[in-house]
Give the backbone structure.
Amino acid sequence: MSDVLVQLSRIISEVVGPDFLLGVEITPDTTFSDDLGLESIEFVALADKLREHYDVDLVGFLADMDIDEIMAMSVGTLATHIESSRA
């Protein structure tokens, strides 16, 4: 698992709370909507934390997607975007 994916998993845990993730393993294929059930307010909190930690604009990244793509987005897709933004 990449360093970004590990850190992203930690940030997601901070946003939703570790109790929510009991028994849930976050992998590159984990989706924000179906698997994690992130609500819009949690997604906003995640975007804030990503901006603080990685200086990544999640809103700009999502602006190029339609609603179906956003709903189906996986943790791995976001990790790849963060890694490419840092390169």
